[in-house]
Amino acid sequence: MSAPCNVVVLISGSGSNLQALLDSQDEKNAARIRAVVSNREEAFGLQRAQAAGIATHLVRHKDFADREAFDAALMAIIDKHQPDLVVLAGFMRILTPGFVRHYQGRLLNIHPSLLPKYKGLDTHRRALEAGDTEHGCSVHFVTEELDGGPVAIQAYLSVQPGETLESLTSRVHAAEHIIYPLAVRWFAEGRLRLAEQGAMLDGNPLPGTGHLVRI
């Protein structure tokens, strides 16, 4: 059996996507979460990791003079675990170009919209206010452009008549918990890669929307 894929997960909050990743780990899955790092000590995801026997680290951004100093400290901790993949799971910090370049091709993020639509925050409200009939979430490789890296996989769902912000948020969260573990597993198996032409699955270029999953 090939060596496992070492994964480090960065979080800032409750860690529901982290939990989905933890739940997906089994003997058939090459991905192995080695550490969870948070910039907030109150992040419940730290407790999830500790309950699963995963190493945890706290790097508080407010302890550093600027983003560069924070990211340097973050990289030093991450690199101790020799990661093959770094996963952003609700990590609410904009990363410096140096950080992104350091992990180029092995840095994934999940965003709650069908990218390139609705980069940034408040995506569900913006989709509802625009009258969109479809919404969803995207797993993408991280580049220096905010929420602009090549998309690996998207989950599409239909916006229901009378959909509320709360119901849409909940449904997209559930979709995130399906596609993020799938993308991480693909990466761990060597199927998902970032190449010059963009995201590749099984050696074939993915379209701009990535692999599509309808929920």
SSE arrangement, N to C: EHEHEHEHEHEEHEEEE
Shape: globular
Give the strand line-up of the largest sheet: 3-2-1-4-5-6-7-11
| Class computed from helices, strands and strand pairing | alpha/beta
Count of individual beta strands? 11
Give the N-terminus to C-terminus distance in angstroms.
33 Å
Spans of at least 5 consecutive residues whose pLDDT stays below 50 are none
What is the mean pLDDT?
Answer: 96
Strand percent estimate: 25-35%
Write down the Rg: 17 Å
Helix run count: 6
Secondary structure: helix percent:
25-40%
> Could you give a short account of the major beta sheet?
8 strands, mixed
Attribute tags:
215 residues; globular; alpha/beta; 6 helices; 3-stranded antiparallel sheet; single chain
Write the layout of secondary structure elements.
Elements lengths: L4 E7 L4 H9 L6 E8 L5 H8 L3 E4 L8 H13 L5 E4 L8 H6 L4 E5 L11 H7 L4 E8 L9 E8 L6 H24 L3 E4 L2 E4 L2 E2 L5 E4 L1
Parallel strand pairs: 1-2, 1-4, 2-3, 4-5, 7-11
Antiparallel strand pairs: 5-6, 6-7, 8-9, 9-10
Helix pairs in contact: 1-6
What does this structure look like?
- Its EC number is 2.1.2.2.
- It catalyses: N(1)-(5-phospho-beta-D-ribosyl)glycinamide + (6R)-10-formyltetrahydrofolate = N(2)-formyl-N(1)-(5-phospho-beta-D-ribosyl)glycinamide + (6S)-5,6,7,8-tetrahydrofolate + H(+).
- It comes from Stutzerimonas marianensis.
- By secondary structure, this protein is of the alpha/beta class.
- 31% of the residues lie in helices and 27% in strands.
- The strands form two sheets. It has an eight-stranded mixed β-sheet with strand order 3-2-1-4-5-6-7-11, sandwiched between helices. The chain has a three-stranded antiparallel β-sheet with strand order 8-9-10.
- A hairpin with a 2-residue loop joins strand 9 and strand 10 (204-205).
- Helix 1 runs parallel beside helix 6 (165-188).
- The longest helix is centred in the C-terminal third of the chain and has 24 residues, at 165-188.
- It is globular, with a radius of gyration of 17 Å.
